[in-house]
Design goal:
The chain is an alpha/beta fold. The termini are far apart. Strand 3, helix 1 and strand 4 form a beta-alpha-beta unit. The protein is 40% helix and 16% strand. It has twelve helices and eight strands. Keywords: Hydrolase. GO terms for molecular function: hydrolase activity. Pfam families: Abhydrolase_1. It comes from Streptomyces enissocaesilis.
Length: 277
């Protein structure tokens, strides 16, 4: 299992972003956002399925995957929301459909609610969107980032692998864990891993949570029934907070729904996309 290479680059205010697109040029645009500590790799199978009919854009956020990672980099939710708005302008997309997982859900919501990014529709897959969020490990690492950065690389890699694997209910398939751990595996990646955790601040979702009732575009909320990172109750709460939003529960899937149940998720997303103008 190998990652599709992201061939294009964009200079954002938070560093160089790597991105790519696939599918017919005349297809309606769909943009996929990953979460943390992941990359666009999680969308590999979903992107292939959607690209049969749609023009699909994938990207690694600054500080993630194959995009730029550097000391002093702003990789907060606030910065990522601004970068996404910049990317949409760069791509000249005025009303794409947006599909966002985990942290990417908050990025898409912030870009829409605070930066006037317009979407044809929005699908949120196990998103970070409602307080409180952050696992005990996430909070511990955020409060002690400088200490964790001193971990020997083999211990760091083992920690990251165990952490990422815990997001899957099915168990990650051969090669998937390696692809997800690889961007964090060298010294630069180790620093970037704890940097993004240290900058994760719930105030960036608190700022927009009260605005959810104002959302007027079509929204689908998808949730892995076995998600242990963000409980299913948050899916019901979020769907209730957004007017007209409907909740789709994906059975036998954990937080990493795009890898645990790619076919079922792709089917749900294609059904949602067909309902959009």
């Amino acid at each position: 299992m190998t990652n599709r290479q992201l061939k294009e680059t964009f200079r954002s205010t938070s560093g160089t972003v790597r991105w790519d697109r696939q599918g017919p040029e005349n297809g309606k645009p769909v943009v996929l956002l990953h979460g943390t500590p992941f990359s666009s790799f999680i969308w590999r199978e979903t992107a292939q399925a959607l690209a049969q009919q749609h023009q699909v854009f994938v990207w690694d956020m600054p500080g993630y995957g194959s995009s730029e990672k550097r000391q002093g980099q702003d990789v907060s939710l606030a910065a990522q929301g601004e970068v996404f708005a910049q990317l949409l302008e760069h791509w000249q997309l005025s009303d794409p459909a947006v599909i966002a997982h985990d942290f990417g859900g908050a990025v898409a919501l912030r870009a829409h609610l605070l930066h006037n990014a317009a979407y044809r529709g929005l699908a949120l897959v196990d998103p970070v969107a409602l307080a409180p969020w952050g696992s005990p490990f996430f909070r511990l690492a955020g409060q002690n980032a400088e200490t964790f950065e001193q971990l020997p690389l083999p211990l760091h890699r083992a920690l990251v692998r165990a952490y990422i694997s815990s997001a899957s209910f099915q168990g990650l398939r051969p090669g998937a864990a390696e692809q997800l751990v690889a961007p964090w595996s060298d010294e630069n990646g180790r620093a970037a891993f704890y940097r993004q955790i240290a900058q994760a601040d719930q105030r960036h979702t608190d700022e927009i949570q009260e605005l959810y009732p104002r959302i007027s575009l079509p929204v689908m909320v998808c949730w892995g029934a076995e998600d242990t990172w963000i409980p299913m109750a948050k899916g019901h709460e979020l769907a209730a907070a957004i007017p007209g939003a409907r909740l789709t529960v994906i059975p036998d899937a954990g937080h990493l729904v795009p890898l645990d149940a790619p076919a079922v998720l792709a089917s749900a997303l294609l059904t949602f996309l067909r309902t959009l103008p």
